[in-house]
Amino acid sequence: MGKNTPKDHHLVPRLWLREFAEDGHLIGRWRSGAEHRTPVRAAAKKKHFNTDRVAEGGQRAAVETFLAREVDDRAAPVLRAIRRGQWPLAEAERRVLVDTLAWQLVRTQAFRSWDEQVGTHLLPLFWAAEAVGRWQARLGRELEPWERVEVFWIAYHQAPDVTGTGDPRSPLRAALRAFQHAQAALNAPGRELVLLRANVPLLVLSDSGVTVRRKDGTYSITPPLLPATAQLLAPVSPTHLLISTPPTTRYQHGRLTRRIAAKANRGAAAWCQEAVYRLPSMPWPPHLHLAEAPPQIPAPRLTVTPSDGPATSTATEHLHVRHPGLRALLEQLSTDAD
Question: Residues annotated as region Disordered (predicted)?
Fold first, then answer.
């Protein structure tokens, strides 16, 4: 890897982290309860998190370079304008902001963990469903309903471990494709982008940056990742909270109350993978606790019943990629496994 190839990849952009820092430092709290004064350059980052380990030279850093130039550099002036009090935004700036929030949902350890857990639960299902189709092709006939169930369960229990699929590019490709879906969800008709402000620091920031709060008030990562009825909470400074919300929820006067801030902070604590950060001069919010482990997706309960209809396809539907840079990245990361 070349000398100028970045190795430390920020999961939350530095321009975002700086708003929660004083004198270049934040206070990070870990699941153990330990707190450390952390420089911005060392906060919410992982070595080679976005590295394409199959490529060579500068192409190994293509994803990280794309995020820096096409996402962070474009977001910086918009976020500065918001913090200076510019709201509402012009349409072009609003689009940049929505894209930034969509990227933040998929560029973190939280999404990668979510993707791995979904794969662990779903790969056996896809494997078993495809096995039914393969057996029908081999025999040249439709299987009887009882035969489908038998083949399905045998294949389900013989499915390979998702961690051993041997495709190191899969996590990067999954994040890039998930951005398209997150972007579409945040731009859905009727969904609003709200900015709430407080006069004093009230908000903390997790190493995931954003949080999804579901309709029932929980912060579960259970699929789907961003349901139509859920809110996306994004603390962009200790005093500014962005909320992408369905039209069923209304916020009056743009004021960030302590009650709303407490909800956002609980989400930060729920979605963090390793640490939650705060302004050094701001005390840790009362009654806010980090769980002992990052959020998990429970294994599904399966019931298979015979069907007289044809086997259904398990192919994944991908949205059309319009951005030429993103399209080029996906082409670089594509393999036969995709």
Answer: 290-315
For the chain, how many residues are written?
338
pLDDT tens, residue by residue, 205-245: 999 999 999 999 999 888 788 999 999 999 999 999 999 99
Distance CA 10, CA 209 (A): 11
With contact defined as beta carbons under 8 Å apart, do 201 and 181 qualify?
Answer: no
Distance in angstroms (rounded) separating the CA atoms of residues 101 and 233: 9
Q: Categorize the per-residue pLDDT at 326 as very low, low, confident or very high, splitting at 50, 70 and 90.
A: confident
CA–CA dist 125, 65 (Å, integer): 36
Other beta carbons within 10 Å of 105? 29
Cα 295 vs. chain centroid, distance in angstroms?
Answer: 13
Q: Which residue type, as a one-letter code, is found at position 110?
A: A
The H or E element containing residue 124 is: helix 109-139
Torsion of CA 323, 324, 327, 331, to 10 degrees: -170
**CA angle 133–321–2, rounded 5-degree value:** 105
Provide the strand spans (E) within the chain: 8-10, 25-30, 35-39, 45-47, 192-197, 205-206, 211-213, 231-237, 240-245, 275-278
- Radius of gyration of the chain from its Cα atoms, rounded to whole angstroms: 22
